[in-house]
Amino acid sequence: MNEDRRVGVWLVGGRGSVATTAMTGAAAVAAGLAEPTGLVTMRPPFTDAGLVGLGDLIFGGHDVVETPLAIRAARLVDDGVLPVGLPGALAGALEAAESEQRPGITGREARIEPQASLARMVSDLNAFRTRHDLGRVVVLNVSSTEAPVEPHPAHENPAALMDALDQNLAVLPPSALYALAAIETGCAYVDFTPSVGARLPAIEALAEAHEVPLAGSDGKTGETFMKSALAPAFAARALKVRSWSGMNLLGGGDGAALADPARAQSKLDSKGRLLEEILGYPVEAPIYIQDVRDMGEWKTAWDHVVFEGFLGIRMKLQFTWEGCDSALAAPLILDLIRLAALALERGESGVLTNLAFFFKDPAGTREHQLHRQYEMLERWVLQKVAA
Amino acid sequence: MNEDRRVGVWLVGGRGSVATTAMTGAAAVAAGLAEPTGLVTMRPPFTDAGLVGLGDLIFGGHDVVETPLAIRAARLVDDGVLPVGLPGALAGALEAAESEQRPGITGREARIEPQASLARMVSDLNAFRTRHDLGRVVVLNVSSTEAPVEPHPAHENPAALMDALDQNLAVLPPSALYALAAIETGCAYVDFTPSVGARLPAIEALAEAHEVPLAGSDGKTGETFMKSALAPAFAARALKVRSWSGMNLLGGGDGAALADPARAQSKLDSKGRLLEEILGYPVEAPIYIQDVRDMGEWKTAWDHVVFEGFLGIRMKLQFTWEGCDSALAAPLILDLIRLAALALERGESGVLTNLAFFFKDPAGTREHQLHRQYEMLERWVLQKVAA
Amino acid sequence: MNEDRRVGVWLVGGRGSVATTAMTGAAAVAAGLAEPTGLVTMRPPFTDAGLVGLGDLIFGGHDVVETPLAIRAARLVDDGVLPVGLPGALAGALEAAESEQRPGITGREARIEPQASLARMVSDLNAFRTRHDLGRVVVLNVSSTEAPVEPHPAHENPAALMDALDQNLAVLPPSALYALAAIETGCAYVDFTPSVGARLPAIEALAEAHEVPLAGSDGKTGETFMKSALAPAFAARALKVRSWSGMNLLGGGDGAALADPARAQSKLDSKGRLLEEILGYPVEAPIYIQDVRDMGEWKTAWDHVVFEGFLGIRMKLQFTWEGCDSALAAPLILDLIRLAALALERGESGVLTNLAFFFKDPAGTREHQLHRQYEMLERWVLQKVAA
Amino acid sequence: MNEDRRVGVWLVGGRGSVATTAMTGAAAVAAGLAEPTGLVTMRPPFTDAGLVGLGDLIFGGHDVVETPLAIRAARLVDDGVLPVGLPGALAGALEAAESEQRPGITGREARIEPQASLARMVSDLNAFRTRHDLGRVVVLNVSSTEAPVEPHPAHENPAALMDALDQNLAVLPPSALYALAAIETGCAYVDFTPSVGARLPAIEALAEAHEVPLAGSDGKTGETFMKSALAPAFAARALKVRSWSGMNLLGGGDGAALADPARAQSKLDSKGRLLEEILGYPVEAPIYIQDVRDMGEWKTAWDHVVFEGFLGIRMKLQFTWEGCDSALAAPLILDLIRLAALALERGESGVLTNLAFFFKDPAGTREHQLHRQYEMLERWVLQKVAA
Ligand SMILES: NC(=O)c1ccc[n+]([C@@H]2O[C@H](COP(=O)([O-])OP(=O)(O)OC[C@H]3O[C@@H](n4cnc5c(N)ncnc54)[C@H](O)[C@@H]3O)[C@@H](O)[C@H]2O)c1
Ligand SMILES: NC(=O)c1ccc[n+]([C@@H]2O[C@H](COP(=O)([O-])OP(=O)(O)OC[C@H]3O[C@@H](n4cnc5c(N)ncnc54)[C@H](O)[C@@H]3O)[C@@H](O)[C@H]2O)c1
Ligand SMILES: NC(=O)c1ccc[n+]([C@@H]2O[C@H](COP(=O)([O-])OP(=O)(O)OC[C@H]3O[C@@H](n4cnc5c(N)ncnc54)[C@H](O)[C@@H]3O)[C@@H](O)[C@H]2O)c1
Ligand SMILES: NC(=O)c1ccc[n+]([C@@H]2O[C@H](COP(=O)([O-])OP(=O)(O)OC[C@H]3O[C@@H](n4cnc5c(N)ncnc54)[C@H](O)[C@@H]3O)[C@@H](O)[C@H]2O)c1
Ligand code: NA
Ligand code: NA
Q1: Could you tell me the strand order of the sheet in which B213-216 lies?
Q2: Where would I find the Myo-inositol-1-phosphate synthase GAPDH-like domain in this sequence (chains A, B, C, D) (predicted)?
Q3: Fewer CB atoms near the end CB (10 Å): N or C, chain C?
Q4: Per-residue CA distances from D273 to B293, D269, D355, D365 (Å)
Q5: What is the nearest CA distance from C215 to chain A, expressed in angstroms?
Q6: CA-based nearest distance C52→chain D, Å
Q7: Which of A142, A260, A326, A334 has the most ligand 1 atoms within 8 A of CB, as the residue to mutate?
Q8: For residue C174, which atom of ligand 3 is closest to its CA?
């Protein structure tokens, strides 16, 4: 496998903001048109880890809309996410990725014909691998956040799940069908969204059985990233957090999706667990997401933290975080692809808990402190290199 | 020495806000009238380290004003620093500390009669130790920040320094004379201010010679504390900080002292070094301190951070920190006393680099990342216990 | 009537934060123990308008809880709303008000026995007037915000309404029954809450018929106050507001009441109309209220305003408003009492549109610009004096 | 004169950010390529006042650098001030303005050869007027802020001033020489900067004598604009402002100029007078300007306002204003040109106090309340139309 450094990357939600930014950015950095700012794995100590080069990634993907990538990229320029002129300069790369986009699974299809949908995904992934003669393929979900799924007995074990699918029962949302397709075709599966994806006992068991690595979930890019850096500081100083309120204004496709309260719930769940885990006591910590269409691809989070110091005195930290979500997410996507490809190369399977650094709701661990997560990541990447 | 758990604490600036809050708070926590919030050493894993109890501290101090502690405490109640009724409930403890306050060295005395001033301090410290039959005494500087000192050849080695003092040359500010007195009488010396204190080669050498421990300098309580928690997060994520501007509004005695640009300079110097150390590249990072008398004991810092993410996109973090400086500083003072007493007990001497966690400008180390400093502290306290 | 300057004040929600703060504060200012800060009518040009003195107000009220005013005031001291020691110094005034508190109408009573409840209120008000031999009485609603009422045909005219009450139909919430009682007994009725109160065609007609003045609704104390000052500035400068998002964190009784989405709706409705009225075009302007119990009597509002300037460039204003709601509301309550008493003295009846300055949702006018509302107030108070 | 609607506009600092943005924007709006957002005089009621059309402005100017306008405009595109593609689309207009740029007066020239410098300016202005056969010419200063001038007896009356210039004494900075040149050639003179310009008794007297109108000074675009909108709201509500601290971060040419403390002083002086005028009592109101080169054309102001409400309770308003200074200033420049041209048309001379709305330090009036200033403006523009 070492002879072939190329890695296939299959993005679910391949025509979305994050996906388009990630593909354009990978090409730009590979071509020397941009610095690798925001890419964790392009800095020491990770530069020595032999990770796949950005120029060796072959992109494809599933989506349920058909907006050409060139149009999507042009809109991202208008919204200030991509530099003026960049998509034009990388037209070849965008065309190549365009030719590898395939129709994904709609919510309706997942309910009505799950079996056929899954088969179609499996066939798309196999064809992609064959067409490009790829050893390693990483499937990464950056499609719109789904509503939480209803619990169902078929979620509990592989046999029951396969049975339910054979009967065409509507037990899985698209994200889980994509995860299954990845597993069946020997691809790594990474979930950057809070959707269910691979996070069901039945699917985790299948991943172990097929010996593919999994990682997730929900990319940590803004307010939660800040929380995971700041809450440990309060803990270290024995300052007692009394309330930590987080109000988020966001637009874009993501803002619209999260305006649906059911979907927002997925997101809030994955954001909410962290403070108590870090601080060791329950905190009044409301989180709210407001869609503000006019904000486009930008987001402002305001956090209001009341804490108690010596002799019970109340003090306050407030912050605002004004970020471009896709610009924050895209380099992490590329990091995750490189790291998942490393896991494939090493033959690791099951949940990659050492990737917690990237996620709001890290699978397989309760470690939420950013610096500890970074240390986990370093150890995982480097120890194996050493070995 | 283990028989006598009592520790003498000599506060330079003993009638100031921080000193008064620390003494009142120690008595309150010892009496069970308040929780030890903000006290790092009263939480695991430090609770098992056998540190001196707050009730076993005997307080005294030097100051250049004569405002009775009871009056100072009453003002701190008015300003919302101390809970209503608390000084009254602890009148005994405040009276005891009052009876141990002595006139300190004014700037004028340091210039005109340094030799005699030093001798007076030495005699005060010896008398304090004898009066209470104390094994261990910690001298801690919480007096007003001094202007930076002019470099002088006598600063370079002990002999030259002693010589200069013998000739009554004005080569040392009060903080350094206090440090010398501590060293000569076998006390630990901790500098919570950015004043020069023990930070001259000649004085550090004397501390080694007298085998006393030193720690400093400049307590890290607000904006810098935040920086040392947040800058590592930017670094870990490969986000490039373009500018980090910090504007500080503060009142109180400290605000007035820092309204003097020369003194503010001491403070700004000790705040400025950190970002580049953590991030590894120079950052445009202006810091400004504004005295706003009306703010009393309160402080608001506003930080405006512009950073660059993927493909050069500019994003922003802003925070405001609304703190009561004395409430933030006082528990750290008590932590430092307990830890310096531990160093005395262990017979450690010279600069205690492992106390970097507490300081803006940690002596003897360039480690500014809060979580690494915390780990250094843990290792230092616990490894020795284990041994 | 001029001989008797005394005015009766009947507070619905008489044991709440706002009511208790208003009564304590009136006594404090009257006794010279506090400045009249925040009282609009105690500054020129209103000082010459011959308004009733704060010492000439006789307080009473209805509430559905029985917490003694002394206890409520003590809690307000703990929460930093009232100065330490003040309730003690004014014990006499609080006792006098305590002896005039009567059980109000619960939601259940309003549904089950509206007729009897109304009669009880009428009798309480008449007794109060007689007991103190009062010429003028002002009823002011500062009770918890109610959920919006279901429309009902009986709301449209007095006859239908009286008919429905005769049949004991559940067509009115408590606030409206209080308004009816005020009208029937010749009292002015002011609504400081967004509850329905007198804002039904049937009740407004009855007020006209009984020749009593009405004012409301929903006191303008924080975010909306800021909006009514700032939005006119954007308009004057031809800057186009693209979005104005307002996130509110509040605790206290009010926070808890507004945690009920139905009640919050009343509040949001009355806040939402203003921007479009001032700017002249629709604006994306979400408002959200979050209960944060830990914040007690304090509130922080964060507003995030994106506006467009020359050549379409996007710019931003953000503000946080950290206020104590009861401290902001109480002086306005006293202003409104004095002004309603003036209306009674002048024999004005119906909706007092010139009091728009005080309200989020001013009855009888669409004028939301703060400075215009101030001018309306000035003209109304002074022109009549001149006449 | 009515036959010729064209107006000559001579910008001092004609190659700066504000000037370039104003010229480009005027052409863009005239050509229908942009909305007149931010232009006060393009909205009712000013649309009926018969003001000169933006397409009828002929631009020229003085500067001490020679950067071509096309290059300056391209940089403003990079900095996000001008839309991508706009300067290209308006190349003709920029070339026309380029051909009318002339070398201005450097500080050195103003000291060494004031007489000759003044003559050169006069000749440039006369030539401009003749070349384009212009009835009305407005000179508007948007050059870098100068340091405050030393008082000199020659400033007091025209004769003394002329005398001093005849002797080539260094008594006037460039801005004042430009003002003199404007006056001598019958042009209106508007000062958008805090430099001395026409604000000397001698120069004001000369303007009266030559019957030319003057306006100034220091464009009100950001923090001060906010203050003039907000401070009246505090006053109207009888809330007592205790401190109002304003910290400004700015880059660009202006940031660099103001990094010079002497020049910053001019700016701070003109910002500082306002609060006391509006509130009627002195307020602790520090203002600070920090150059942050990395911020380019953008500015962030943070204001921290502590106010006192009922019973002395302390509350807080904080705001951040993130603006693009040139985008805020440019439309005001165009408004001022149109209004100064109106004054010329009407034959008004001396200080135009009714333009206070546009200035931090309005000449000839102490009215700082934004809404009152707007009313003054409306009355001035419209009453004359009516007449
Ligand atoms: N940007 C961040 O900082 C960040 C952080 C954490 C998580 N996320 C998550 O990443 C995801 C993508 O965000 P985005 O900003 O690119 O959103 P987006 O709306 O721009 O893109 C989502 C794409 O998914 C497609 N899609 C929807 N349903 C699909 C389906 N069933 N199958 C295949 N494709 C489907 C959409 O058509 C769209 O093209 C979201 O779920 C978001 O919550 C983003
Ligand atoms: N509070 C914090 O968060 C914090 C953080 C870092 C450093 N510090 C430093 O701690 C020190 C104390 O702060 P504070 O708020 O208590 O100030 P303060 O003004 O209330 O107290 C300082 C005291 O030092 C006394 N003093 C002045 N010169 C002296 C001298 N020559 N000898 C002895 N005493 C002298 C003063 O009379 C005063 O009583 C300051 O230097 C401050 O910069 C405080
Ligand atoms: N404080 C402000 O800035 C502000 C501004 C606008 C409106 N308001 C409104 O003022 C009202 C009072 O606010 P608060 O902070 O004093 O709340 P609070 O909860 O402290 O007091 C409300 C009081 O009303 C009583 N009450 C509830 N139902 C009642 C009924 N049916 N009859 C009589 N009394 C009843 C409660 O028992 C309580 O004592 C709220 O409706 C609030 O929305 C307040
Ligand atoms: N932009 C705003 O919001 C705002 C508000 C109020 C005042 N102002 C003032 O407007 C002025 C222009 O601001 P800017 O951002 O365009 O600055 P800038 O630095 O971009 O432009 C100033 C121009 O003036 C030129 N100049 C310097 N000295 C000169 C002289 N003696 N004669 C002729 N030209 C000279 C410079 O070469 C430069 O081209 C500044 O004084 C600023 O303080 C701007
Ligand atoms: Na998005
Ligand atoms: Na309340």
Answers
A1: B101-103, B57-63, B7-12, B136-141, B188-191, B213-216, B350-351
A2: 222-326
A3: C
A4: 19, 7, 17, 12
A5: 34
A6: 18
A7: A142
A8: 31
Label residue C320 left, alpha or beta by phi (over 0 means left) and psi (-120 to 50 means alpha): beta
Question: Within this chain, do residues A73 and A157 fall inside the same structural domain, yes or no?
Answer: yes
Binding-site residues, ligand 4, Cβ < 6 A: D 12-13, 15-18, 62-65, 104-106, 142-145, 174, 192-193, 218-219, 221, 252-254, 325-326, 328-329
B243, B291, B292 member nearest D295 (Cβ): B243
Residue-wise pLDDT tens digits, B199-235: 999 999 999 999 999 999 999 998 999 999 999 999 9
Q: Which CATH number covers residue A371?
A: 3.40.50.720
- Is A220 strand, coil or helix? coil
Q: Which residue of C has its CA nearest to A290?
A: C286
Sign of CA dihedral B374, B377, B383, B385: negative
What is the CA(D84)–ligand 5 centre distance, in A? 23
- How many domains are contained in chain D? 2
> Pairing between strand C240-250 and C298-308?
antiparallel
Residues of D in contact with B306 (CB under 8 A): 294-295
Residues D203 and D241 in one domain: no
Instruction: Specify whether A17 is located in the same domain as A131.
Output: yes
Q: Is the pLDDT of residue A271 over 70?
A: no
Give the tens place of pLDDT for each residue, C226-248: 999 999 999 999 999 999 999 99
Q: CB–CB of C318 and D316 under 8 A?
A: no
Q: Which residues contact C231 (CB under 8 A, 6 or more apart)?
A: C241, C244, C274, C275, C278, C279, C368, C369
pLDDT at B386 over 50: no
Q: Do A230 and B229 touch (CB under 8 A)?
A: yes
ipTM: 0.95
Q: Which pairs from D380-383 meet CB under 8 Å and 24+ separation?
A: D380/D352, D380/D354, D380/D355, D381/D45, D381/D46, D381/D49, D381/D339, D381/D342, D382/D45, D382/D49
Whole-number Å distance, alpha carbon C190 to ligand 6 midpoint, is 19
How many Å separate Cα D53 from the centre of its chain? 20
Q: Is C289 exposed, middle or buried (0-12, 13-18, 19+ CB in 10 A)?
A: buried
Residues D229 and D210 in one domain: no
Closest CA to C250 of C289, C199, C282: C289
CA atoms of A120 and C288, how far apart (whole Å): 44
Confidence of residue C334 (pLDDT cuts 50, 70, 90): very high
The Cα–Cα gap between B258 and D302 comes to 21
Q: Which residue of D has its CA nearest to C375?
A: D236
Same domain assignment for residues C229 and C202: no
Contacts of C28 in chain D (CB under 8 A): 311
Give residue C244 CA to ligand 5 midpoint distance, Å.
Answer: 20
- Tokens describing residue B47: 């609770």
Measured distance CA(B217)–CA(B211) in Å, rounded? 19
**C143 HSE (CA, 13 A, CB side):** 30
Beta carbons of C316 and D313 less than 8 Å apart: no
Computed over every residue of chain B, the mean pLDDT equals 94
- In the predicted structure, residue C217 carries a pLDDT above the cut 80: yes
Statement to judge: residues C264 and C212 lie in one domain: no
How many CB atoms sit inside 10 A of residue C161's CB?
25
Domain limits at D54? 7-219+327-386
B2 lies in some domain:
no
Residues β-bridged to residue B140 = B11, B190
Measure the CA–CA gap between D371 and D259, rounded to whole angstroms.
32
Q: Does residue D288 belong to the interface with chain C, where contact is any CB pair within 8 Å?
A: no
Identity of the residue in D286, D292, D302 whose CB atom sits nearest the CB atom of B243:
D292
Residue D152 neighbours by CB under 8 Å, 6+ apart? D164, D171
Any domain includes A2: no
